[in-house]
From TrEMBL:
This protein's name: Transcriptional regulatory protein ZraR
Keywords: Activator, ATP-binding, DNA-binding, Nucleotide-binding, Transcription, Transcription regulation
Record-linked SMART domains: AAA (SM00382)
Species this protein is from: Botrimarina mediterranea
GO biological process: regulation of DNA-templated transcription
Lineage of source species: Bacteria, Pseudomonadati, Planctomycetota, Planctomycetia, Pirellulales
Gene assigned in the entry: zraR_10
Keyword Signal: no
Sigma-54 factor interaction domain residues: 54-283
Example GO molecular function: sequence-specific DNA binding
Protein's UniProt keywords contain Nucleus: no
InterPro entries attached to this UniProt entry: AAA+_ATPase (IPR003593), AAA_lid_NorR (IPR058031), Homeodomain-like_sf (IPR009057), HTH_Fis (IPR002197), P-loop_NTPase (IPR027417), Sigma_54_int (IPR002078), Sigma_54_int_dom_ATP-bd_1 (IPR025662), Sigma_54_int_dom_CS (IPR025944)
Length: 396
């Protein structure tokens, strides 16, 4: 018996509590004879099995799992798209482990962490004397990943010159080390990831279109955490277990108010942000409960989300974020949601289009696809006319 261990109080399970599946967190055995903190059981909703090391059984994640399992057995390039912190590297590992290359190398390269010259040497290697500081031959990451998988994270940050060389590797499966003329052939599967919409980047000339199509053989989109809130209880349980073990703590209860706040927050940093906050709560907890007060002010709704929280990804995600933000600012009794959200968006659209058309209403109405009289009325309703004497909005 471990006499130095402090026996916890009994866990109270309220079967009528609907905000969080507390039964899943009930401890089924006494901690009296254990040296380690008890392991919490994640909520279970009967969904299909997840991928190894990945938490979440929501419908959105089930689609990710299906696509990942299907693509894993192929040789095709895979492009992982999603906001920062959504777990793209975990999916890249799963693609490797579930495929026939599982016993071969898995090499990760963060393309956004190095300058163009250093990244070229990192990817393709170099020979002695090829540039200042090249004191010896070096094997590149593509060569090191031969017969295995290379994961190119933040592929959108690569320069046009490097994109040309990446395209050649994808098409011809060959390259030369920096400063060398000998061609090296490799059999390396490429998995790339981007937190930007590469189709849009290619359309704007910021990313090579031909490279985009080579990478985008099998696209897998990872949903942000705000679009799979039902996975938050399982994620919280997982991180509590991990950081209890790591820090020798015993935080095994979750205050209902705290869980509600975690599920209501927009999570601009996604799972990585949630992980950080749970680790902080475990370290700072004075007792065995994760309380509302242990959460940062932004999660408790006491301060605004950090600047840049709403990241540009795609129009649909932006629309979802905008509506969620509008709804979060309204109370349950509000009956003006259309005016709060839709009317404000319409006003901004009209204002910006008018500005782009130098205030000419006929041209603005054509751009907006609405009748000129309708536009004139909306300009007055939204107070965009600036008064009778204002000439900022011209009829013709």
């Amino acid at each position: 018996m471990n006499r130095g261990a402090k026996a916890p109080r009994l866990i109270t399970v309220n079967p009528t509590q609907t905000s969080f599946p507390w039964r899943a967190l009930a401890l089924l055995a006494s901690w009296r004879f254990q040296k380690k903190p008890p392991v919490l059981s994640p909520p279970h909703n009967g969904a299909a099995a997840t991928l190894p090391g990945i938490i979440g059984s929501s419908q959105a994640m089930q689609e990710v799992y299906r696509n990942t399992r299907q693509a894993a057995s192929s040789r095709a390039s895979v492009l992982l798209l999603g906001e920062t912190g959504t777990g793209k590297e975990l999916i890249a590992h799963a693609l490797h482990k579930l495929g026939e290359r599982r016993n071969r190398p898995f090499i990760r390269v963060n393309c956004g962490a190095l300058s163009e010259n250093l990244l070229e040497s990192e990817l393709f290697g170099h020979v002695r004397g090829s540039f200042t500081g090249a004191i010896d031959n070096r094997t590149g990451r593509f060569e090191a990943a031969h017969s295995g998988t290379i994961f190119l994270d933040e592929i959108n940050s690569t320069t046009p010159l490097l994109q040309v060389k990446l395209l050649r590797v994808l098409q011809e499966r060959e390259f030369e080390r920096v400063g060398d003329t000998q061609t090296i052939r490799v059999d390396t599967r490429v998995v790339a990831a981007s937190n930007r919409d590469l189709a849009e980047e290619a359309a704007e000339g910021k990313f090579r279109e031909d490279l985009y199509y080579r990478l985008n053989v099998v696209p897998i989109w990872l949903p942000p955490l705000r679009q799979r809130r039902e996975d938050i209880p399982a994620l919280v349980t997982h991180f509590l277990n991990a950081y209890n073990e790591e820090n020798d703590r015993y935080v095994v209860h979750i205050e209902p108010r705290a869980m509600e706040a975690l599920q209501d927050y927009a999570w601009p940093g996604n799972v990585r942000e949630l992980q950080n906050y749970i680790e902080r709560a475990v370290v700072m907890a004075l007792g065995d409960e994760l309380t509302f007060e242990l959460l940062p002010p932004v999660v408790r709704g006491e301060s605004n989300a950090p600047r840049g929280a709403f990241r540009r990804m795609d129009f649909e995600s932006l629309a979802v974020q905008l509506v969620e933000e509008g709804l979060s600012k309204a109370d349950d009794a509000a009956t003006d949601l259309h005016a709060r959200i839709v009317d404000r968006v319409e006003r901004e659209v009209i204002s910006q289009v008018l500005g782009a058309c130098d205030g000419v209403q006929i041209k603005a109405a054509q751009r907006l696809g609405i009748n000129r009289n309708t536009l004139h009325k909306k300009i007055k309703d939204y107070g965009l006319d600036g008064g009778e004497g204002d000439s900022s909005s011209k009829a013709s």
